[in-house]
């Protein structure tokens, strides 16, 4: 069993308060964050949450840290990064406001966040704003823990990789939230590239994949991940390698092999290869989980394919010169 794997046996011991802040994470994921804070993390390296939202995940982790026998709340810090505001392109929900919707005159939920996290503010360091602005490109401090619930676009993932994954060391723990999101294939192929240097904790916890770094990661691997320096074929091979390691999630609700197959379709889709994307996605429509939860993904991929000119169209256009 992996070092992190032993935490799975402690799920039953966790009792989170009922009045946790609104969260987009599942109870299982919150419990795992609590367990990490309570039983695993030390505070010797940076403890970082990327994408704190309204503070539900932050609260669970901070509660665990506050009850830890080794984390020193006077010296240790939990770094929380988020826009802490709603608006176009933020991926933040109005539910992160206490009232559940945005007040007419204010788009920031930072004060609501601070109120909820009140007991933990003394050891919380809040970084409010766009991650590209609030993270320090010069900071090379080793990272002990990364909760990544922010990498919803390739642009943000690049920042996560350049400024945070690059600071991983042997022992660093990473949680990828939204690992069950086929539209975020960068989470999947980057994990594939890291496989020789990490140990996956066990089955994903709902949508979260947890791993620990077990061998030093060569700088050129991290550089390739940051620069997205893989061909489509290489990315598909890397995702297949992850498929070989994980199957259904801990609660038996999410079939990751199928999810990752649909992620491959998105690799092709983002590369403009819509025919190839649809040929990867089409057979997955018979997967009960995907057809129930990802109908919009199939719709999107099929539409893009339908719009793509056929080989014959392209040939005719080339022949008549338009
Ligand atoms: C899925 S939510 C986080 C949910 C949260 N962990 C919870 O427990 O409910 C993703 C968060 O990422 C933040 N985010 C996305 N892109 C960002 C960026 N470039 N800079 C800062 N925050 C960003 C959004 O503001 C949003 O709150």
TrEMBL record:
Gene3D superfamilies documented for this protein: Vaccinia Virus protein VP39
Tree of life domain: Bacteria
InterPro entries (UniProt xref): SAM-dependent_MTases_sf
Descriptive protein name: Class I SAM-dependent methyltransferase
Biological source species: Streptomyces justiciae
Lineage: Bacteria, Bacillati, Actinomycetota, Actinomycetes, Kitasatosporales
């Amino acid at each position: 069993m992996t070092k992190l794997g032993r935490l799975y046996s402690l799920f039953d011991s966790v009792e989170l308060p009922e009045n946790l802040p609104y969260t987009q994470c599942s109870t299982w994921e919150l419990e795992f964050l609590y367990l990490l804070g309570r039983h695993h993390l030390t505070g010797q390296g940076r403890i970082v949450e990327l994408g704190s939202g309204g503070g539900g995940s932050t609260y669970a982790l901070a509660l665990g840290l506050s009850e830890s026998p080794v984390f020193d709340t006077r010296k240790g810090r939990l770094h929380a990064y988020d826009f802490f505001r709603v608006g176009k392109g933020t991926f933040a929900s109005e539910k992160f406001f206490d009232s559940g919707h945005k007040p007419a005159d204010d788009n920031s939920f930072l004060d609501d966040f601070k109120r909820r996290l009140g007991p933990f503010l003394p050891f919380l360091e809040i970084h409010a704003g766009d991650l590209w602005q609030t993270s320090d490109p010069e900071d090379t401090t080793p990272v002990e823990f990364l909760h990544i619930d922010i990498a919803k676009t390739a642009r943000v993932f690049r920042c996560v990789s350049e400024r945070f994954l690059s600071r991983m060391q042997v022992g660093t723990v990473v949680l990828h939230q939204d690992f069950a999101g086929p539209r975020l294939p960068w989470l999947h192929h980057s994990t594939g590239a890291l496989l020789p240097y990490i140990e996956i904790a066990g089955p994903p916890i709902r949508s979260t994949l947890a791993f620990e770094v077990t061998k030093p990661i060569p700088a050129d691997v991290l550089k390739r991940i940051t620069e997205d320096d893989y061909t489509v074929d290489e990315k598909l091979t890397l995702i297949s390698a992850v498929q070989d390691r994980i199957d259904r999630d801990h609660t038996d609700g999410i079939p990751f092999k199928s999810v990752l197959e649909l992620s491959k379709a998105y690799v092709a889709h983002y590369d403009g290869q819509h025919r190839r994307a649809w040929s990867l996605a089409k057979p997955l429509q018979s997967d009960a989980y995907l057809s129930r939860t990802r109908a919009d993904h199939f719709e999107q991929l099929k539409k893009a394919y339908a719009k793509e000119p056929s080989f014959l169209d392209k040939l005719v256009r080339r022949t008549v010169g338009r």
